[in-house]
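Assemble and predict.
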Amino acid sequence: MVSRTSAIRIGLVFPDLLGTYGDRGNALVLEQRCIRRGIDAEIVDIAAGTALPDSLDVYLLGGGEDDAQVMASAGLRASRAAIDRALGNGAVILAVCAGFQLLGGSYEARDGEVLDGLGLCDLDTRAGDARCIGELIVSPDASLGLPTLTGFENHGGRTRLGSGVSPLGTVEVGHGNGSGNGAGNSAGNSAGDEGLAVDGILATRVVGTYLHGPVLPRNPALADLLLGWVLGEDALTSLEDPVIDALRRERLHEARKTGLSAKRRDWDLARG
Amino acid sequence: MSTVSDVSPGSANGSSLSARVRIALAAGRAAGWASRVAGRGAGTQISGRVMLALAPKILEIVGAGRRNVLVSATNGKTTTTRLMAEALRSIGAEVASNRTGANMPAGIAAALGRSPETRLAILEVDERWVPYVVDQVPTELLVLGNLSRDQLDRFGEVRSIAKKWRAVCEANPSIPVVANASDPNIAWAVAPAHNITWVALGAPWRQDAATCPSCSALLDWSVDSYSCPECQFSQPDAAYRLDGDGLITPFERIELQLALPGAWNKMNAALALTAVAAHFDISPQQAADGMSDLEMVSGRFSTHRLADGRDAKVLLAKNPAGWTEVLRWLAASDTSVVLAVNAHLADGRDPSWLYDVPYELLAGRDVAASGERALDVAVRLSYGGVDHIIDRDPLSAAVSLPGDVAIIASYTQFTHLTRKSW
């Protein structure tokens, strides 16, 4: 990989619409992990109502409320050509929660209306009966070589992936996509996987997920994976941070404790 | 407008309560006493729960025959309630109020149960419970301050609360409202009411008001007030307006001289003063004088004696809008800061809001990451370039920091630190 002369440009897409769950934190983590390695980086706020530039290295789409999601969707669809050009140039997309839903072909608004998404990925979201709220643990796709992912989810949507589309990983604790379809979990998987809980989507230089918290402060390896896609893996020296390690251990431990008690309750109920 | 003589004591429902309600009130008080003796807090929540269990209609019964003023907001509702009560008491009115901040039906019933003879009630109401309380008690006035993101895992979206409030105003358009014109969610929610007194408090936090509550288009905030380019919705003209340290009324400017610190308390006081002056027959100056001596509200702005003899200030900040105000207040000094954050149900179980707050402004100070979620705070501060120590116990963290210390606490940390001072 040829070393870059220009700064990494991290686009925070419509932070006033898609920033409900501290999503700016994801931009901050990417920027700071570059700077700690001596790599120039800058955060570019893309205000709602303006067109997306096609020149950025990373595009971050965060969580948003219903009305805000509708407006964000309109803005993204208007900039679809720029997004395609950026992806063609090697840009990376991280989309969380409402932003993840907007990657798909359609999603359902609160009033039951089904609205168009960006149509970038083969996935669709419908409203569920209850909101999925709580700690979420995801075992990422083995091909990524990432440690377990930790985050917090808070969404009413159930997202179904199209066949041939891979999730980011399987759910250990929590709900994730919540559709119960593990179809597309790996190439050639069978209908026998139906019911396997998965989270998010993994495509070429695109990650979608219901993990927030925000997701990157809790999962620095995922941040570095995204940066590696931009810069080339060799460009990233390792960064030690014992406090982040301790935070991860604490969150995983707490989530497994509550996840276990939820499972035990379900099991007790099933036994009558 | 009501007159002060209407708020004299002695005409509530004390004599007409059924035996069942009397028993429920007595049992609730006993449970509250037991809880206080056991050191579990002010005892109002358990007391109210016991009452509701014994007599489910108790709020309707203890609220009947009273003049109930309901105060709600994401931030400032406890202080606004207290300031209104102080202003009314200063002119001799007897006021019932849930002054410990227990603002759900149980806590409200407990507060009213403690003052069966008091006719006028100034009641703080949790945002989600406003529709229920309006349903249960005769409501003379609604005082509504602001809506912003807070405990999203529990409360849901900001706009869903605005929609609930709007339904209340649609169903009860004759209830007078005092409302903050500067908050689009509030202005839209109360619009169906027939009698609205607007006060413009300013909008330092706008991140939950990017879109038009009416048609979802992007609001235009370019002239320091908002308007929708797509529909008719825009900031209402306000007869009352916070201007620096003063409240502009239709007749005069009243200086808000408060013992309470911070710009956010000027906003609380301006809302309280507008409500009291516009709705009750009290001169604004007299009402402002009645508020000026209040130094502490349910432990807010109290001090805590540290092991080394220093006094630490204790402030509550439970969401990004509240933190934004606290950071503005901190900017005036070089105080050391302890960030004490928990993530229990009452704090919000999801502390992702830490990344909505510009903690970068704390760089250069002595700072401690504290509370049960000290590690989340520490990682946030590290990415923000703020050097800090980590100590889960906020009091020992405070002792480790030099000079004046302020402990900024999330809700359960705050109640733990301050309950002895209530």
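The longest strand of chain A covers residues 123-140.
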